[in-house]
């Protein structure tokens, strides 16, 4: 009964490929306006549809998962493993980024002329990003902010960490009240949870068209020509991302699980395509949860905790890209980053990813914080703004793949994975 999912994947892939072709043609013939008026809205509608499910799905599934736990200590153990996994893979990702940038020196591929041109063209956009970044709260405040003052406000504002915190506490409290009182509450949220999963299925039928519209309008707007002057930098980022997924995640799966690596990557393909098209790990969350549970067999108790947390605090792709970007900008400005500064990048980029929601372009904002810490001119982000959207699409694939790997590893070590075959 799982075959339709693979067919859906093929349809989404076709939507994506067609989107690229149509986008390139539109860009070439200046049909961008037509696209943004008539095609883009279908993509936006799709993103809004899947985003609509995120809050109720996360809240209901996490609450049901926690309330049905008969052992609270288990929650602490799962939490500990999750955080450890996320911190480890994120640090490895930045190291891969830093090593690639130091070895292949992307900054050397840029002429003085292109450099001036990029700095001038993107100065305004860079200034507004820097402004947003400088207004961000520090780490201490971010951690305190995890405790909501008003959970209704958190739900309304989609504050993921606050929602997770409240759902966990409420779930724990439910296990402590009488069975008679707890049962109807759990039943109610189980019903909501099931209905949300049904909604994911319905909305995914629309995915191929949504993906087509998103890709066609993005490529139509930016074109692929923009990659030209920043080709070396972009290739280093993309190859680094690819290596991280293939090497690090495969090793993790091999060491900790019995899941076949090929089956794992086949299982999460639909989520990867949605991540690529939407550039948002938060919007992709319902699809990631669905793939990990249905195609890989991770229990919903684990996935409903590990994945929403990952969508907010775990961004391996973003971290890797920040490593490359920081060194690239420094190289262009003729600065040599010493080992201390590079270690600072590892630390700040890891911390910066905590509390930054998985939405398009957030990696650029957090990059500004990294640059500030190591003393690289912030205006430097203007150099890479032009290719940011395309690279954002790629790094979001890695972000959600990291979350899915973590869920699979934690589930395997907790004995909460039921092997499924996506071919039966
Ligand atoms: N768009 C990425 C995500 O949602 C974050 C980023 O790198 O900008 O995961």
Q: How does this structure look, described?
A:
With 424 residues, the protein is mostly helical. The chain has a single domain, classed as Sodium:dicarboxylate symporter (Proton glutamate symport protein, Orthogonal Bundle), CATH 1.10.3860.10. It is 79% helix and 0% strand. The chain is built from 20 helices and no strands. The chain has helices at residues 3-28, 32-38, 40-67, 72-104, 112-121, 123-134, 139-144, 151-157, 160-176, 179-204, 207-222, 231-256, 261-267, 269-278, 281-296, 300-313, 316-332, 339-353, 362-374, 385-413. Helix 12 (231-256) packs antiparallel against helix 17, helix 14 packs antiparallel against helix 15 and helix 15 packs parallel to helix 20. The chain is globular. The mean pLDDT is 88. The structure holds aspartic acid.
Keywords:
424 residues, mainly alpha, Proton glutamate symport protein, 20 helices, 79% helix, globular, binds aspartic acid
Order of helices and strands: HHHHHHHHHHHHHHHHHHHH
What would you say the CATH architecture is?
Orthogonal Bundle
Instruction: Characterize the biggest β-sheet.
Output: none
**N-C termini distance:** 6 Å
CATH class identity: Mainly Alpha
Point out poorly predicted stretches: none
Please tally the β strands and state the result.
Answer: 0
Remind me, CATH topology?
Proton glutamate symport protein
Task: Specify the number of helices.
Answer: 20
Question: What is the helix fraction of residues, given as a range?
Answer: over 70%
* Secondary structure category: mainly alpha
Number of domains: 1
Would you tell me the overall average pLDDT?
Answer: 88
What oligomeric state best describes the polypeptide chains here? single chain
């Amino acid at each position: 009964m799982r075959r339709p999912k693979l067919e859906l994947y093929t349809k989404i892939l076709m939507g994506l490929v067609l989107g690229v072709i149509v986008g390139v043609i539109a860009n070439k013939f200046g049909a961008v306006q037509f696209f943004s008026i008539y095609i883009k809205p279908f993509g936006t509608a799709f993103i809004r549809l899947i985003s609509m499910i995120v809050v109720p799905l996360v809240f209901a599934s996490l609450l049901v998962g926690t309330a049905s736990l008969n052992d609270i200590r288990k929650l602490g153990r799962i939490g500990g493993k999750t955080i450890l996994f996320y911190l480890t893979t994120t640090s490895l990702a930045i190291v891969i980024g830093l090593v690639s940038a130091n070895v292949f020196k992307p900054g050397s591929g840029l002429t003085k002329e292109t450099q001036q041109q990029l700095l001038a063209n993107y100065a305004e956009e860079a200034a507004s990003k820097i402004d947003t970044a400088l207004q961000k709260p520090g780490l201490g405040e971010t951690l305190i902010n995890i405790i909501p003052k008003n959970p209704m406000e958190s739900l309304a504002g989609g504050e993921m960490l606050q929602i997770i915190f409240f759902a966990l506490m409420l779930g724990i409290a439910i296990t402590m009240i009488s069975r008679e009182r707890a049962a109807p509450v759990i039943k109610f949220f189980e019903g909501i949870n099931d209905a949300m999963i049904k909604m994911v299925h319905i909305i995914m039928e629309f995915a191929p068209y949504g993906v087509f519209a998103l890709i066609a309008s993005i490529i139509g707007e930016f074109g692929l020509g923009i990659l030209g002057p920043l080709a070396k930098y972009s290739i280093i980022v993309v190859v680094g991302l690819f290596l991280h997924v293939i090497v690090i995640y495969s090793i993790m799966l091999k060491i900790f699980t019995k899941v076949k690596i090929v089956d794992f990557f086949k299982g999460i393909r639909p989520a990867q395509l949605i991540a690529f098209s939407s550039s948002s790990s938060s919007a992709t969350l319902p699809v990631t949860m669905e793939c990990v549970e249905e195609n890989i067999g991770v229990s919903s108790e684990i996935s409903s905790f590990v994945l929403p947390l990952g969508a907010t605090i775990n961004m391996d792709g973003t971290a890797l890209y920040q490593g490359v970007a920081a060194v690239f900008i420094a190289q262009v400005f003729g600065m040599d980053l010493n080992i201390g500064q590079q270690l600072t990048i590892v630390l700040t980029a890891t911390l910066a990813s905590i509390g930054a929601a998985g939405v398009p372009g957030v990696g650029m904002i957090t990059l500004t914080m990294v640059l500030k810490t190591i003393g690289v001119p912030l205006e430097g982000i203007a150099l890479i703004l032009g290719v940011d959207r395309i690279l954002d699409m790629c790094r979001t694939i890695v972000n959600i793949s990291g979350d899915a790997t973590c869920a699979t590893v934690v589930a395997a070590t907790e004995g909460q994975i039921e092997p499924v075959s996506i071919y039966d």
